[in-house]
Amino acid sequence: GTLLVDVENQFAVGDEIEMMSPSGNQTFSLTEMHDQDGESMDIASGSGYIVRIPAPENIKPEFGLLMKDL
Questions:
Q1: Residues ≥6 apart with Cβ < 8 Å to 42
Q2: Quick one: pLDDT band at residue 55, thresholds 50, 70, 90?
């Protein structure tokens, strides 16, 4: 599946992302990202972008928060 993400801060393909949710936290590497038209993109520069990313397995994204590992 995929997650629809309203971007607030910049992140890019290759970044380590942590998904925090009531069902637990999971860290994963962002392998791909697409804009709303399905076009591949490498960087979401910040606020104003809505992107689709692959959903990590075994996570329920309701009320989830994505964070970039620094």
A1: 12, 13, 33
A2: confident
Total-model pTM = 0.84
Q: Tens digit of pLDDT for each residue in 2-33?
A: 899 999 999 999 999 998 888 788 899 999 99
Q: What distance in Å separates the CA atoms of residue 43 and residue 18, rounded to the nearest whole number?
A: 17
What letter would DSSP give residue 46?
Answer: S
Residue 32 · residue 15 · CB < 8 Å: no
For 63, the token pair is 């009320």
Query: Cβ contacts of residue 27 below 8 Å, gap of 6+?
Result: 16, 17, 18, 19, 69
